[in-house]
Amino acid sequence: MPNKSLGKRSLATLLDYLVVYAFTYFYILAFGERAPNGTHVIHNSALLIPTAFWFIFIVLTEQYLGGTVGHQLFGLRVITADKHSLWLGRTLARRACDAIEISWCFGLIAYIIAQTSEKGQRLGDMVARTTVVAKKDLNVTIQFEFEQTGA
Predict the structure, then answer these.
(1) Within 13 Å of residue 11, how many CA atoms lie on the same side as its CB?
(2) pTM score
(3) Which of 54, 63, 86, 93 could be stapled to 128 by a disulfide with Cβ–Cβ 3.0 to 4.6 Å?
(4) Secondary structure letter of residue 141 according to DSSP
């Protein structure tokens, strides 16, 4: 059964990546070299700045706030399949799939996969064993990994 918050998830992702793409575009315009064909390019260590921005804006906000800025604005939260908070390994696994299903096609592949998957998950959710839920529908207490008992 597809997740009923798929429309909000899609808009949240578009918003998040619009910010990332805009930052990258203006960074390259401001600090890139003008190529002979009129475009602007960045090289070597200058590539780290847009990558660091993506890591902070997407990965760390999802890790520490339970969702990206877009998720927060649309009242969504990323949780593990067993209803726990994320840990960095899962967040990185989830976001590593962005290159396949979001970045180059504006999320079309992620949308199709989430629309057709049994649990409404995109590839990144399946790999990381996570799901995105509306905060208002979340009626369980999130338990952090370090709070779990061994029994």
Answers:
(1) 8
(2) 0.83
(3) 93
(4) -
Rounded to whole angstroms, how far apart are CA atoms 104 and 24? 14
In a 10 Å sphere around its CB, with 0-12 CB exposed, 13-18 middle and 19+ buried, how is residue 4 labelled? exposed
Q: Using only C-alpha atoms, what is the Rg of the chain? A: 17
Under the banding of pLDDT at 50, 70 and 90, the label for residue 1 is: very low
According to the model, what pLDDT value does residue 141 have?
Answer: 55
If phi > 0 it is left, if psi is from -120 to 50 it is alpha, else beta; for residue 55 that is alpha
CA–CA distance, 79 with 132 (Å, rounded to integer):
6
Cα 8 to chain centroid distance, Å, stands at 13
What is the residue extent of each domain of the chain? 6-136
What's the farthest any 2 CA atoms get from each other in the chain? 65
Query: How far, in Å, are 3, 20, 55, 124 from residue 102 at the CA level?
Result: 18, 12, 15, 10
